[in-house]
Amino acid sequence: MKWVEAKVVIDYSLYQDMDTAVSLVSDVYYDIGLNGVSVESPEYDREADWARDAVPMPDHYAVIGYFSKNGRLADRCQHLEAALTRLNEDNGIVTRVAYTDVDEEDWAESWKKFFYPKKISERFVIKPTWREYQPNPGESILEIDPGMAFGTGTHPTTRLCIQLMEAYLKPGDTFFDVGTGSGILMLAAQRLGAGQMVGTDKDEDAVAVALENLAQNRIDPGTYTVKSGHLTAQTTGRFDFIAANILTEVILPLLPDIPPLLKGDGMFICSGIIGDKRQWVADEMSKQGMHIYEVRSEDDWIAFAAGLAQTPRG
After folding, report:
1. Cβ burial, residue 252 (10 Å; 0-12/13-18/19+)
2. Given the DSSP bridges, would you call strands 224-228 and 291-298 parallel, antiparallel or unpaired?
């Protein structure tokens, strides 16, 4: 398969709040439907033991996404350019975008250059399989290879999910990960003491990546099932904890499927919701008989913790 690298370079001289600029540009890719991006920055804070495989530092800030070279390519490029124009008009963020054809074997390695270990919550550090990292006391390492751009696990939507899991998931909980991607939420759930786990994804490649990451982290294969197909229709039984880290447009039609899969005192968390779509999700949750226990946000992203009971279990 052929891929196209879409590299958005941000003009630092005109907009110096780079954290915000990078976040807003990254959100454009996620809104298009990409699950992962890579970021180039001249200011990476690298640990000493990263020096052995370090690459030359870039002289610019850039956010990079990869599009399949298929019938959707033109629409995705048009969407990207229109969103960047709006960022300039609304936020004063000046960018330029460059497209480069990339073969699959080259693409599979090119985005890895700037993916380094990152602490995403009080407890968890995400570490790519090809990097070294010495954990600090109390840190738990989630080692992943995202594979075909199924997300590095460092986006705010994933961080919000894992933070809510830290707050609400109980040892022994059965766990259902809807749209598992790289399997990062299943890894975190297992480290938090979850019992039997199920993960689903529409993409067979994502399932393969999730299985590889679970094996890489030495998770007992008897404790989980990962399968492709419809995100919820092929799953039966009731779960203590259900997580969905997917976009609003995917979450909304799935919400009617959640109550039949959730135990009476179970917990449902969902993320991937842009701020201006928050009320859509809240209204649909209420329509399906769910009560919202907590709402967390980072940048313009929203995550909900909810359930069928009026109050969360103690």
Report:
1. middle
2. unpaired
Asked if 307 contacts 268 with a C-beta cutoff of 8 angstroms, the reply is yes
DSSP state of 312: -
Fold of 118-307: Rossmann fold (3.40.50)
The verdict on domain 2-114 having CATH code 3.30.70.260 is yes
The helix or strand, by DSSP H or E, that contains position 262, with its residue range, turns out to be strand 262-274
Q: Is there a contact between 152 and 115 (Cβ–Cβ < 8 Å)?
A: yes
CATH topology agreement for domains 2-114 and 118-307: no
H-run or E-run covering 129: none
Q: Per the structure block, which two tokens stand in for 170?
A: 């109980």
pTM over 0.85: no
pLDDT in tens, the chain (314 residues): 678 889 999 987 766 678 778 878 888 887 776 756 777 777 644 443 333 344 444 568 888 888 878 888 899 899 999 999 999 998 889 999 999 988 766 666 666 666 788 888 888 998 988 888 888 898 999 988 765 445 566 678 888 999 999 999 999 999 999 999 889 999 999 999 999 999 999 878 788 889 999 999 999 999 999 999 888 988 999 999 999 998 788 899 999 999 999 999 999 999 988 878 899 999 999 999 999 999 999 887 899 999 999 999 87
CB neighbour list of residue 250: distance below 8 Å, 6 or more residues apart: 179, 231, 244, 272
Q: Where are the domains of the chain?
A: 2-114, 118-307
